[in-house]
Protein: ATP-dependent DNA helicase RecQ
Organism: Flavobacterium erciyesense
Amino acid sequence: MNSNEIDIHKELKKYFGFSQFKGLQEQVIKSILSQKNTFVIMPTGGGKSLCYQLPALIQEGTAIVVSPLIALMKNQVDAIRSLSSENGIAHVLNSSLTKTEITQVKADISSGLTKLLYVAPESLTKEEYVTFLRSVPISFVAIDEAHCISEWGHDFRPEYRNLKHIIKQLGDVPIIGLTATATPKVQEDILKNLDMSDATTFKASFNRPNLYYEVRTKTKNIESDIIRFIKQNKGKSGIIYCLSRKKVEAIAEVLQVNGISAVPYHAGLDAKTRAKHQDMFLMEDVEVVVATIAFGMGIDKPDVRFVIHHDIPKSLESYYQETGRAGRDGGEGHCLAYYSYKDVEKLEKFMSGKPVAEQEIGFALLQEVVAYAETSMSRRKFILHYFGEEFDSATGEGADMDDNVRNPKVKVEAQKEVVQL
Ligand code: ADP
Ligand code: MG
């Protein structure tokens, strides 16, 4: 099909009800429709799904979408089905299906009804599925959360490594990689692994101009410091991240004792309690959720006003993702991290039980966090540089939104000189 003949604005309205594309969506969709390998790097919430869903819906054949989480796939399939009168328009293919269901899925694909087929990477290793997919027209293969390919990403999945090999068996189909991980190292890995150095790359800016970044030295007064901060921000929603479940419980209790409405959230709590605490936060029955990093995936509360890291995160990538939950509505978002070298050592010790290769990557990622915490330069510039993005700390959007820029530190070198005089 000739992409020039399709009015993609009309299709956008028809299928999704939106009148405009968001960010780079239009360019991405045009690239996909022209059968090019395409690589999309956009922050979370940037609208990556639509980049492959729309071309899949309007092209002939079935698009295969590789996604790492069954829950994510189910959500997307339900969302697509709600846009159409045909249930068969989108399917999931995985090991949980019965024989009858598999027969139905195959029939819908063969008849041309199915436009999107969601698969987990491990399902694609099944010979039976690959043989079947070779026999039907495939429009393209989209690999969502493509950073799972890279050991430098925050969610490495060995099964993602085999994807290229399998896709090759499907014939000459375009590949679309999508990720919210912006580090150049991960991007290199993705392109290399999928063997698509020829891909047209679209990268959106990762700058979040409404977020204020601050690092404070962690002292034994951290708890009263956090309490003071929250009291100064009374009535606002916030998340406090801690490394351990024990710390989560302890901090939540300290806050409660001090008259702050807070609930704990971590994977050690039973599912019912977790769901209840999450709802309490979303419904604003409590102001603060104290959590391990188990909290946040898929949480879309637009008016989170602060994200506090009681302990340093394990990578700048995670820090960006976690702080990214603040100020989704474009309003104020204060990102405060407490830093002590003791915490770094704790994390290093924690990693020392892991395989050597993993350790080395872990240490390197952690060193970047240390450098971020200790820097005296614009924190926004530091983060964006880490993501391979140039930022002008004088004129860029949000340039004065960090502690280093607002209160420049006296340079350590300068102090030394004074002493020598
Ligand atoms: P990502 O995968 O990049 O994190 P999603 O694909 O989940 O982002 O999309 C985030 C949100 O943006 C969704 O609620 C989606 O409906 C919305 N969205 C996507 N494209 C548009 C658009 N063109 N106009 C308005 N909203 C959009
Ligand atoms: Mg997504």
Observations:
- The radius of gyration is 23 Å.
- Residues 412-421 have pLDDT under 50 and may be disordered.
- Residues 23 and 343 are 38 Å apart (CA to CA).
